[in-house]
TrEMBL record:
GO terms for molecular function: wide pore channel activity. Residues 1-23 form the signal peptide. GO terms for cellular component: membrane. Keywords: Signal. SMART domains: C2. PROSITE patterns: C2 (PS50004). One of its GO terms (biological process) is T cell mediated cytotoxicity. Residues 9-127 form the C2 domain. The lineage of its organism: Eukaryota, Metazoa, Chordata, Craniata, Vertebrata. PANTHER family: PERFORIN-1 (PTHR46096:SF3). This is Synaptotagmin-5-like. It comes from Clupea harengus (Atlantic herring).
Amino acid sequence: MATCCTSLPLGLLVLSLLCVATADVRVWGIRAYGLYGDPWGPPDPYVKVYCGHAFGGMTDFRRDNANPSWSAQFSFPSGRPGDVLRLEVWDKDLMNDDHLGTCITTVQRGSLSLSCSIGNGRLELRYEL
């Protein structure tokens, strides 16, 4: 019985450290301004979202829109401070999609806003850990 009681605090400590080590990284409020597409028209942009080594998914594309916004939210349950958060902006085409730019930041605790240069335009987003 004494072994059980002395192991319990150690077990709680280990469990609490595991909970602190990883948390949910949530990304939302993605919008872009001034994106350039092909020479014959505005882009059909979409965004791919990564955190650490995990691919979180991608937004829908917005047809003929140089200033799109997306309502999509992305969640990374095993995110940690120091992970790399990467958002790639693409222009959807019939054959091969064009890469317009990438926004990269290091994940920090809290709720943060981020603004990145993407070619001649900008990408804005919010994330929290």
